[in-house]
Inverse folding.
């Protein structure tokens, strides 16, 4: 099928006129060639757009620079000085990596990525990136992770890092270290945005730019002075996260966003598109998605050749040469280029007759041409209504010499021989600065120009003009967050008074009340990935409205309903559609607003819990790296509570994954008051005490009567465990049951059944956070090991359960490994019941019976445990098994 299928559906109202036009085109193509014909079509298309005919834009253009030479703006700087500064930065970046690998073989680091992108960054540093020193937060720059050495090298030149710090590149443990890549968690006053996991920087940058518009449209902060820049690799564009959300950027008209793709045509193993052209492919993708695309393919020295290309032969050669061949030309001699690139066509060969072989080797790519880049960046920041992507063609390992430039292995080479270092010095023209003698030991010294040198003064002057250094992370509250009143939370302590509700409904109610709070409410950011109805949150659409940058241009189908689907340009709800990755990036943007804007926001991202850690775990990890503060709500949680959905929907393991993320406070509340208490305390810890943590709470869809909060339980809820009910009086044989989340139901039934039928008194404890308990246990265990002579400390969970009768049976709707997080600290016999295995669709009762977490299985487990400690005859266990008709299938549920 072709895209011009629409033509056959329109009547040709004047066939004669049509024929004339077609004939003219035929003639041109025949007589003047295809290039000329294509040119005319391009011009017609352009005129059509000017006349607003609604004609389709071509998605790809010829393999030349988008900005013609005559439209390049005047470059206002001193190119010579900037080249010197760049040479110093290139040198120090390489020196840092080489020195690190001399100090410890295999410590790693990258030379070639920054070598290819030095000019891309330096144009930004000298002319575009805005700092924070004027009091406005300035620009957000997402640096390509593997280019970090270059960013450190610049900070060194600016005097922000010293030699000792550079020498600690990748040696972080002893303090004063520089992290391998951008990690705010490790360098909280330097790096702002983690990027190195490919694809995450790009997607985060889109939602960051969108969040800036959101803040402005909601009149919470004037973000008009800030731009988001993202630097990424061409190989990185293969990540679904990189390209998966680009249409959002154009749909929302994010002209505050600029991407610079470093198209060095290579990734780690080899060419990105050896048999094609990555720049052309990306151009089509971005243009098709509605972006402004600027290609920077050729350096200025090609201009003259292109101007003389009247036959279009050069253009044709450019268009038809694949990237694998371009990569080869980058390593070959001028003679080879003359022969293979310019050779076959006599017209082409003639075009370069006046150039020497050396000249041919030195026809640089656009991404190393300062004037071309300056033109592209200027056009990008001036462009209104669309995001811009700059596709800059570079050479991987540029200036590093023969062993590096365009070699397939270049990505991972981190050492240089003495000879290579010397050649680099010569190539960068640092003959005066670096003496050959200094290189005798093969360890390149750092070089920093004196403070009174022209270079230093120029460089610092440029940064002063752009409001100070970058990257620079600072947490300075510009708009303090008012706190919600206590009353909001109090209401949830009383229980639901017999009305059956789920913790999801409770959460929605709490969220609504928080959003109604004067001052605090407007700072709440509710985020949903097309799942609001599932969670009963659609009731908020009308009251708080869905953010739509250009407003609602239609009358919604449900307009007559009280809860109609209402969009507005200052809507509060971020309805992200079906993209958990995008929603997570959106949450990160809001959750780091306290730092990047000084405007603390309180995001609540509510999602299908199965599609959280399991689906976007790496983004959650990057949120932790970013020092995000906010709430993640894993709704429809549990492997049996979400009854009908089955294997791909029932989540029994996100809490286990959450347990490995240090900053994550993971809670599994059973009751309304627990949920409210955790959120209340979370707001205090994150937004009053300023802890760099975030919360993950599981919420469920099972309805039950929410009990009132037991007196004195507040501390226990937050600490992770508290006694919920004592064992019934008068029963001497006793046991302990821990429950969390919706397993409170079967656990309470089991306690009752044990008392009534089996004469066992079971006390009930609510375990709100096994993660928290484990962390306390580990801390105490470590302290005791390090303080062998001191009075040993006792972990909280050990203390709490010291007087519990035991044996202790824990029951969860998650896998057993979740309660088992505390196994080492439980002072009694301990066994966990959980939902190990694949989910499947059935009723809640059947599923709980299948996974052996229902009332009968809890009862049998308690009885068995008692028999094991000699407090009950094993025959009673057999009797109970028979009484409940428990399935004794020898294949456990997790093998079925
Ligand atoms: C998610 C993820 N997968 C794999 C890697 C490992 N990796 C690091 S750099 C790289 C190649 C990068 O190529 P490109 O994006 O073209 O960047 P360049 O260095 O060429 O500028 C790979 C595969 C990673 N960092 N993150
Ligand atoms: Mg690359």
């Amino acid at each position: 099928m072709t895209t011009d299928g629409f033509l056959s559906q329109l009547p040709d109202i004047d066939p004669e006129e049509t024929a004339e036009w077609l004939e003219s085109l035929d003639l041109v193509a025949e007589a003047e060639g295809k290039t000329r014909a294509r040119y005319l079509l391009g011009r017609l298309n352009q005129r059509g757009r000017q006349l607003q005919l609604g004609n389709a834009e071509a998605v790809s253009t010829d393999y030349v620079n988008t900005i013609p030479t005559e439209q390049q703006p005047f470059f206002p700087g001193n190119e010579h000085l900037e080249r010197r500064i760049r040479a110093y930065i290139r040198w120090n970046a390489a020196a840092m990596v080489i020195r690190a690998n001399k100090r410890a073989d295999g410590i790693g680091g990258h030379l070639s990525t920054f070598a290819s992108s030095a000019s891309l960054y330096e144009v930004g540093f000298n002319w575009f990136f805005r700092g924070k020193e004027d009091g406005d937060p300035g620009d957000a720059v997402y640096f390509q992770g593997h280019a970090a050495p270059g960013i450190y090298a610049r900070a060194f030149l600016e005097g922000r890092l010293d030699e000792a710090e550079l020498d600690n590149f990748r040696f972080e443990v002893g303090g004063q270290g520089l992290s391998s890549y951008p990690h705010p968690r490790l360098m909280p006053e330097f790096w702002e945005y983690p990027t190195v996991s490919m694809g995450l920087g790009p997607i985060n940058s889109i939602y960051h730019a969108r969040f800036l518009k959101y803040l402005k449209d909601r009149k919470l902060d004037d973000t008009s002075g800030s731009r988001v820049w993202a630097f990424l690799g061409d190989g990185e564009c293969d990540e679904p996260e990189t390209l998966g959300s680009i249409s959002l950027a154009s749909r929302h008209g994010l002209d505050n966003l600029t991407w610079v793709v470093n198209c060095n045509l290579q990734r780690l193993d080899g060419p990105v598109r050896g048999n094609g052209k990555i720049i052309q492919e990306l151009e089509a993708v971005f243009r098709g998605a509605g972006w402004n695309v600027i290609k920077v393919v050729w350096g200025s020295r090609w201009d003259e050749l292109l101007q003389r290309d009247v036959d279009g032969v050069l253009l044709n050669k450019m268009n038809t040469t694949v990237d694998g061949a371009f990569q080869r030309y980058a390593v070959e001699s001028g003679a080879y280029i003359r022969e293979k690139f310019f050779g076959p066509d006599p017209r082409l060969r003639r075009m370069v007759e006046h150039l020497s072989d050396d000249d041919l080797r030195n026809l640089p790519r656009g991404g190393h041409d300062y004037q071309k880049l300056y033109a592209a960046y200027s056009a990008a920041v001036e462009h209104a209504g669309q995001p811009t992507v700059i596709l800059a063609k570079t050479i991987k390992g540029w200036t590093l010499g023969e062993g590096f430039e365009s070699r397939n292995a270049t990505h991972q080479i981190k050492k240089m021989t003495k000879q290579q270092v010397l050649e680099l010095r010569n190539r960068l023209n640092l003959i005066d600065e670096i003496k050959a003698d200094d290189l005798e030991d093969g360890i390149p010294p750092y070089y920093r120009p004196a403070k009174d040198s022209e270079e230093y003064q120029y460089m610092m002057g440029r940064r002063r003009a752009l409001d100070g250094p970058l990257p620079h992370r600072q947490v300075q509250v510009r708009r303090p967050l008012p706190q919600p009143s206590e009353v909001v939370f109090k209401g949830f302590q009383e229980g639901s008074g017999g009305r059956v509700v789920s913790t999801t409904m409770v959460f929605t109610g709490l969220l609504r009340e928080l959003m109604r709070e004067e001052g605090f409410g407007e700072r709440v950011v509710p985020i949903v990935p097309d799942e609001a109805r599932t969670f009963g949150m659609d009731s908020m659409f009308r009251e708080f409205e869905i953010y739509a940058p250009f407003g609602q241009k239609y009358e919604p189908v449900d307009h007559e309903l009280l809860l109609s689907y209402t969009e507005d340009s200052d809507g509060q709800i971020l309805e992200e559609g079906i993209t958990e990755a995008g929603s997570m990036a959106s949450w990160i943007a809001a959750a780091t607003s306290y730092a990047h804007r000084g405007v603390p926001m309180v995001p609540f991202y509510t999602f299908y819990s199965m599609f959280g850690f399991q689906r976007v775990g790496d983004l959650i990890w990057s949120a932790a790296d970013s020092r995000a503060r906010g709430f993640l709500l894993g709704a429809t949680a549990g492997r049996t509570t979400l009854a009908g959905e089955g294997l791909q929907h029932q989540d029994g393991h996100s809490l286990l994954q959450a347990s490995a993320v240090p900053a994550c406070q993971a809670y599994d509340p059973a009751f309304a008051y627990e949920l409210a208490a955790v959120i209340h305390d979370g707001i205090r810890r994150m937004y009053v005490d300023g802890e760099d943590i975030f919360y993950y709470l599981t919420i469920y869809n099972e309805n039950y009567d929410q009990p009132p909060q037991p007196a004195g339980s507040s501390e226990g809820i937050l600490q992770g465990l508290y006694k919920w009910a004592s064992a019934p009086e008068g029963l001497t044989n006793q046991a302990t049951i821990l429950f969390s989340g919706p397993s409170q139901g079967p656990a309470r039934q089991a306690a009752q059944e044990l008392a009534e039928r089996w004469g066992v008194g079971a006390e009930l404890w609510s375990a709100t956070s096994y993660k928290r308990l484990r962390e306390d246990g580990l801390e105490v265990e470590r302290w005791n090991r390090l303080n062998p002579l001191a009075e040993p400390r006792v972990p909280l969970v050990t203390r709490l359960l010291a007087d519990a009768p035991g044996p202790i049976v824990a029951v969860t709707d998650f896998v057993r490994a979740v309660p088992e997080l505390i196994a080492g600290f439980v002072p009694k016999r301990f066994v966990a019941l959980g939902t190990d295995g694949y989910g499947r669709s059935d009723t809640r009762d059947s599923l709980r019976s299948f996974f052996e977490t229902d009332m009968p299985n809890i009862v049998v487990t308690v009885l068995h445990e008692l028999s094991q400690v000699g407090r009950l005859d094993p025959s009673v266990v057999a009797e109970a098994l028979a009484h409940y008709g428990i399935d004794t299938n020898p294949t456990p549920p997790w093998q079925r």
The pocket of thiamine diphosphate (ligand 1) is lined by residues 113, 116, 146, 196-198, 233-236, 262, 264, 266-268, 272, 396, 411 (CB under 6 Å). The chain has 34 helices and 20 strands. The first strand starts at residue 140 and ends at 142.
